[in-house]
Design brief:
The complex is a heterodimer of chains A (661) and B (182). Chain A folds into four domains: 160 residues, no CATH class; 180 residues, Four Helix Bundle (Hemerythrin (Met), subunit A); 105 residues, no CATH class; 101 residues, no CATH class. By secondary structure, chain A is an alpha+beta fold. Chain A is flat, with a radius of gyration of 27 Å. Chain B has 182 residues and is α/β, with parallel strands linked by helices. In chain B, α3 links the parallel β4 and β5. Chain B is globular and about 70 Å long. The chains are: A alpha+beta (661), B alpha/beta (182). Chains A and B meet through α11, α13, α14 and α15 of A and α1, α2 and α3 of B.
């Protein structure tokens, strides 16, 4: 019964999405106020029914209702509750439902926090979001219904991949989805602007906080994913350039470009058509990412082919969304005249460089990700272009990008003097150069070009941001939140870069064979194998080793690397023992038993690896702070306009632009 | 109207067209130029005995397999179990061509720990640090698997990780057939 309610609620949500997608948009074009007014309540209602539907599926998981095919396939009664919940989005159908719910949530949020946005604009934005929702819910109901029942009810469900039974992964997909789907808001704003043929500073101010929040979720999601891969996969890596990761990285890079291009659009009325294009590109890549990952195209070409209906739907949906928005762009973009002029040395130019580099990066990652797929499409099987390709192309691009970043804060809009900039930057430039050359010499008495480059870039960006705050000469507490946001995000980026540099160059790794009582020295630490025991926990049996880690005779920590057996012909899982620290991680993974109480271990010393994720957290925080800048919540003037008839409503956005901060 | 705004649309259409064209072609009929040709020669150091060289010529007179892999290649990990099963079952001499991996600046000796971790099914591992042998074999990506007959002619090429079905339906019968040839 409950699953049927869920199914029915999903159908209702689809019907509402159709209404939301058609009437407000149509009403805004033919001047029907009451049609326009449908948008907001419809977005709330869609959200409501999607929540009901989601709750019903969740209920089925929690009560182990194996008559539901999706539950039986992805969960069993042995699993701890938290993983029965996360099993909901562990596979294709459920993750689509989560996607739709997230989209509904973003739509309702836009509807709720829309007081400053003229009704016509809001109606169009919500309509576009409604239409996206229609596509997703149709996809679900036609090809991947999560509520499908089984005629023969199994006594027990199948097991979820043990790799996915982890708290990091339980919250990682929802985070990423918030980011992916969040980009649909910027996309919808872009489509709405193209329909209206008008794009001004006010539009940019509405779109910016939404873009920031979506970007924040993407940042957190990616960071979390990387951290998860690090401690769960058991081989101490934090980024593998695999297609699934790339699928989330590409929208993130485009989102970063968009955030910066939106700033130019708001402040200088430039880059307008470009900003629109980035909105389209960002969301297209999100869709591509979702589908690539979720349709199984990437994990196995066979599963894709086994369900041609699904594959075809996906292709058509992608074609319709991207094709129609690019067609609209082709015919409408000329209306967005960029009026702000700027000279070669100006913040606009700097941000142009930023955007160009980021787009080239996206293109290279896209090429590296799709190339194997294309080869696959030609039937030549699955191949991997491998990390060497990605490292080779991203390092030089990243270097250029970070050099530009350091200048960013100091350059003035419109026109600036190189001599003036030079006066501002010489201190951070000198200090970071000195730091980059001297620090490694003092601390590890070593010179390595890559270390120096990484340290220079990191400290250059950090000092650039900090010195800018200082040079303003006012109390840092009076600085607007958006400035704080960008300063913090830039410092986060710098931290990540330093972390990546140091851990890539100085990490040490060793495969060793240890008997109980034996020990091994690595990077100044002594790892002593003192004990091994067998444990039975919830749904697995673990072999757990105890390693005493000492440094110069003093006990640093005890580590407990585990090997878990989930039974049922599942691959055994490695649970690494990690001693985390601000400047280094010690990491031990348990290998195979070698007989005679001897086991193989893999031991790592990873300097500064944590900085990679700390940087990610800072970036996300920066994005969030910027989104909450009070500039975006200014609503005066617009409220007055809401009472005007619709013909004038269309123009209200111009009138607000006078109030640009 | 400005023509430049059509560029993204046209680029997209071109991309889609390319994909459709690609999908319409029956992939199976695209032959590899190496099939039916003499196996390209290589002389490469062995992974565990760097001073010893291994060549394609010395494999002549038997049916053998060349498998291209690297420790950085994710699909290789997926393939490894299946490949090991094939080698075990058919007792077929197999050269693992370690591609742009061992001896490179980034991966140094990861290949060795990789094999220690996942098992080493190979008769010998040839180290192709700069990828020149891979180039001669017309490699598009990693992994790839070649079957070479007694006369040293490349008879089959499998691109991507071999999976169970391919082993049972293609590779095993093929190796059996080639062994019966004169």
């Amino acid at each position: 019964m409950i699953p049927e309610i869920g199914h029915f609620a999903l159908i209702l949500a689809l019907s509402i999405a159709i209404v939301q997608g058609v009437f407000p948009l149509l009403g805004s074009l033919i001047g029907r106020n009451n049609w326009v007014a449908i948008a907001k309540p419809a977005s709330f209602a869609q959200m409501f029914f999607l929540s009901v539907s989601f709750a019903c599926l969740l209920f089925a998981f929690l009560t182990n209702d194996f008559s539901v095919k999706y539950v039986a396939n992805n969960s069993n009664s042995q699993m701890p509750t938290i993983f029965r919940i996360s099993a909901l989005w562990g596979a294709h159908e459920g993750s689509l439902l989560l996607w739709a719910l997230t989209l509904g949530g973003w739509g309702a949020a836009v509807g709720y926090f829309s007081k400053g946005i003229p009704p016509i604009m809001l109606a169009r934005v919500l309509s576009v979001m409604g239409l996206i929702g229609v596509g997703f819910m149709l996809f679900m109901l036609l090809t991947s219904n999560p509520f499908e029942r089984l005629l023969q009810i199994p006594a027990e469900g199948r097991q979820l991949n043990p790799l996915l039974q982890d708290i990091g992964l339980a919250i990682h997909p929802p985070m990423l989805y918030m980011g992916y789907v969040g980009l649909s808001v910027a996309f919808s704003f872009a489509i709405a602007a193209m329909i209206g043929g008008k794009l001004d500073a006010a539009w940019a101010r509405w779109a910016r906080p939404w873009t920031n929040i979506a970007w924040m979720f993407l940042t957190f999601g990616i960071t979390l994913g990387s951290w998860w891969a690090y401690y769960e996969l058991g081989w101490g890596g934090w980024w593998f350039w695999d297609p699934v990761e790339n699928a989330s990285l590409m929208p993130w890079i485009v989102g970063t470009a968009l955030i910066h291009s939106l700033a130019v659009t708001e402040k200088r009325a430039s880059f307008k058509a470009w900003t629109i294009l980035l909105c389209i590109l960002g969301f297209s890549l999100s869709l591509l990412g979702t589908f690539l990952v979720r349709s199984g195209v990437l994990t196995s070409v066979h599963s894709f082919a086994s369900d041609p209906e699904r594959g075809l739907f996906i292709l058509i949906f992608l074609l319709v969304v991207i094709g129609s928005s690019l067609t609209l762009f082709a015919f409408r973009a000329h209306k967005f005249r960029s009026v702000g002029i700027f000279s070669l040395v100006s913040r606009e130019s700097g941000l142009l460089v930023n955007n160009v580099i980021l787009i080239i990066m996206t293109a290279t990652v896209l090429l590296g990700t799709l190339y194997p797929l294309i080869i696959d499409a030609f039937g030549s099987g699955k191949i991997s272009v491998g990390p060497p390709y990605f490292n080779y192309v991203t390092v030089p691009l990243g270097t250029l990008l970070l050099i530009t970043m350091g200048f960013g804060f100091f350059i003035r809009w419109k026109k600036d003097q190189p001599s003036r900039i030079l006066k501002k930057i010489w201190i951070p430039l000198t200090v970071s150069l000195v730091a980059a050359f001297v620090l490694p010499l003092i601390l590890i008495s070593d010179f390595n070009v890559k270390t120096t480059l990484g340290l220079f870039l990191g400290s250059w960006v950090t000092l650039g941001a900090l010195m800018w705050v200082v040079s303003l000469g006012r109390s840092p507490f009076k600085l607007p939140l958006s400035s704080w946001g960008s300063v913090i995000a830039h410092i986060g980026m710098a931290m990540t870069v330093i972390g990546i540099t140091l851990v890539s160059i100085y990490d040490t790794e060793k495969d060793v064979r240890l008997e109980i009582g034996q020990s091994y020295d690595l990077a100044g630490y002594n790892f002593a194998f003192t004990n091994i025991e067998s444990l039975k926990v919830d749904n697995y049996i673990a072999s757990r080793a105890t390693l005493d880690v000492t440094q110069e005779g003093k006990l640093v920590n005890k580590m407990y690397p585990e090997k878990r057996d989930y039974g049922r012909d599942q691959m055994p899982m490695t649970e690494a023992g990690i001693d985390a620290g601000f400047t280094r991680d010690l990491f031990a993974a348990l290998g195979e038993p070698l007989g005679n109480n001897a086991w193989s271990f893999r031991i790592y010393h990873k300097p500064f690896v944590r900085w990679i994720w700390l940087g990610g957290v800072l970036m996300g925080l920066g994005g969030m702070l910027a989104a909450f800048d009070k500039r975006y919540r200014r609503t005066r003037k617009v409220i007055v306009k809401q009472t005007l008839p619709s013909s004038e409503l269309k123009n209200s956005s111009d009138q607000v632009s006078g109030a640009t901060a | 109207m400005n023509k430049k705004y059509f560029i993204p649309l046209f680029a997209f259409i071109a991309l889609v067209g390319l994909m459709l064209f690609g999908l319409k072609n029956d992939p199976k009929v695209i032959p590899s130029p190496f099939i039916g040709q003499e196996a390209p020669e290589f002389t490469l150091p062995k992974l565990y005995k760097q001073d010893e060289m291994i060549t394609a010529t010395e494999m002549k007179g038997q049916v053998w397999v060349l498998n291209l892999w690297a420790s950085w290649c994710v699909s290789c990990r997926a393939e490894h179990k299946v490949l090991s099963r094939l080698i075990e079952k058919m007792k077929v001499p197999t050269i693992g061509l370690n591609y742009k991996d061992y001896g490179t600046e980034e991966y140094t000796d990861e290949a060795i720990s990789w094999l220690a971790r996942y098992g080493n099914p190979y008769t010998a591992v040839a180290v192709d640090t700069n990828g020149s042998a891979g180039l001669d074999w017309g490699v598009v990506g990693v992994p790839e698997t070649f079957v070479i007959d007694k006369k040293g002619i490349v008879r089959y090429k499998f691109t991507g990780p071999v999976f169970d079905q391919a082993v049972d339906e293609i590779l095993v019968p093929l190796i059996d057939k080639l062994r019966k040839e004169g």
